[in-house]
Predict the 3D structure of the following.
Amino acid sequence: MFLDYFALGLLVFVALVIFYGIIVIHDIPYEIAKEREHPHQDAIHYAGWVSLFTLHAIWPFLWIWATLWRKERGWGFQKLEEEQHDIHHRVDALIDQVSQLQQEVSELKQQQGGSKPVQPRSTSHEEEQ
């Protein structure tokens, strides 16, 4: 008799743990969206509940939707591409400045003692162009 009640209690406990576990798992995309301050976090939350009734068919898409957004860069890598483009132009400007400074140093050395002019080294950047 005791084992019957113990088995029933264990069955109810396992059912509750599985039910609660499924709900917690389906809130993972919403938690990710909330952490990243996603602009559609409410929609992701509601879609997570809908996913319970669609036999989890849309849940992987919710995960992807939640992880695509980053507050610092938005939806994609456009901001990173712009930053890399800016850095590339700054490096080009610095290379030009270094070349100009090398020429000035060479001219100054020539003026001081008629020493041999120093040829500026070619950089890999100049070879590319």
User: Anything to note?
Assistant: The chain has a mean pLDDT of 86.
